[in-house]
Amino acid sequence: MLKTLSGRFLILTVIFVMLAEVLIFVPSIARFRLDYLTDRMERAQIASLALLGTGDMIDDELEVELLENAGVLNVVLRRDSLRQLVLSSDLPGPVTRTVDLRDPSTFVLIRDALTRFVTPTPEIIRVIAEPARGGGTQIEAAIDTGDLHMAMVDYGITILWLSLVISVLTSAFLFLAVRRLMVTPIKALVRQMRRYAEAPEDARRVIEPRSSVRELREAEMTLRDLETQLTQSLRQKERLAQLGSAVAKVSHDLRNILTTATLLGDRLEMVDDPTVKRIAPKIVKSLTRAVSLTEGTLAFGRAEEAPPALQMVSADAFFQELCEGEQLAVDPELVRIVHDAPPGLSIRMDPDQLHRVVGNLIRNARQAMETAAQPGTITVSAGEDDTGWHIRVTDTGPGLPPKAQENLFQAFQGNVRKGGTGLGLAIAQELVRGHGGTLELEKTGPEGTVFCLVLPRELDAA
Predict the structure, then answer these.
(1) With contact defined as beta carbons under 8 Å apart, do 88 and 74 qualify?
(2) CATH number at residue 333
């Protein structure tokens, strides 16, 4: 029960109602004591006036009866300046305290009432009050508090039972109201969420706001928007997955066709016809770009790259082989590719995957410089610190345009050169993340571009 919203609300309601009853009980018991003593003083005044009106005609037995009926032990009446003992009897004990009812403060009334309520031992008190309807200037009476304590206890028990009944009824009504207005709509909302979760791609299961409670309706509207967006996103992802599967199949077959066409283009270059010699290189270059496009699409379409096979690799030998291979694809008079690694530096990496990453960065820089017909240098540098190894690919090219920087690592969006796919950097970043590292654009501008690759030293970071 404590784990349900309605159960907790019921328990809290009972607690708060009982607390409210306690706060009401304290002044109520003080008022009850005041009324009790006031009533005794009024009875004592009536008995004293009756005695004064008859003179000496009342015998001792009738006087005792008057005192018992008034609930007091003696009565002293002050009229003008005369203080007169009107009714009296033998006191069972000494008077222990005086209670003044003429102008009591609320604090004093509550304090005295609580003291009397928790003190069962009876005592004799002297009560002072103002006579009603001009029956004198002051009336005093001695009262035994034994009956007062019992009356206060009975009154307290009555209030307790009444409080319990009120709290139970109030809690029951609130419990039913909360279940009707809050718990039931929330359960219906949860049921709808579970129903939607079974088939989130089904738009018919999107919630339709129906609650008349403003807060619940806002929750339903927010959930509707969320479910609508999720359904649309799932549909889009499904379409993209289907499209990707189709593109992968087409790219695979197209790559084979383009490879054959490239071989035929190479043979066209052997023909002595001037027109063929002029056109054939352009055809071969176009076919080569098409083959690169299909291979990049197939590479990106893989579900995931294989986990890196990490090993310590000599940085100098690795970069030397990489740079020499890339230099063969470009005129050294236009672009020079150099490396700079401290002697003896070893980097923990997967050499095949890092070859793809750094090679892609070098090719991007080389192609940008070739397109701009801007001679320059591409430098691959490496170093290390306490946290790991860092590799930088720096070029003196024209820099990246702002549009390319916005979606640099987004597949099919971060292409810089005409005819590019934007897959290279996306694949490179995925491979670097597999090493537990980061690949970022450090700076770019008219003076050149710098990409920084950081590999962590700690193995558990990967």
Answers:
(1) yes
(2) 3.30.565.10
Q: Looking at residue 412, what is its pLDDT?
A: 53
Give all strands of the β-sheet with 124-129 in edge-to-edge order: 82-87, 74-79, 138-144, 124-129, 95-100
Are residues 226 and 273 located together in one domain of the fold?
Answer: yes
pTM of the model: 0.43
Q: What is the pLDDT of residues 318-370, one digit of tens each?
A: 999 888 888 877 888 889 999 999 989 999 999 888 988 998 899 889 888 88
Q: Which two tokens stand for residue 399?
A: 């820099």
Please check whether residue 178 lies inside any domain of the structure.
Answer: no
Secondary structure class of 145 (helix, strand, coil): coil
Task: Please state the separation of Cα 12 from the chain's center in Å.
Answer: 24
Domain that includes residue 334, residue range: 311-461
Please give the distance of CA 147 from its chain centroid, rounded to a whole number: 60
Cα separation of 194 and 163, whole Å? 42
What is the C-alpha radius of gyration for the chain, rounded to an integer number of angstroms?
50
Query: What span, in angstroms and rounded, lies between the C-alpha atoms of 178 and 173?
Result: 9
Domains held by the chain: number? 3
Token pair, residue 377, equals 């240098």
Entry field: residues in the chain: 462
Read off the tokens for 234.
């799932």
Q: Does residue 48 lie within any of the structural domains?
A: yes
Same domain, 249 and 350: no
Q: Report which of 138, 114, 113 is spatially closest to residue 127, judged by C-alpha positions.
A: 138
Work out the end-to-end distance of the chain between its first and last CA atoms, rounded to an integer number of angstroms: 47
Please compute the mean of the pLDDT values over residues 46-74 and round it to a whole number: 76
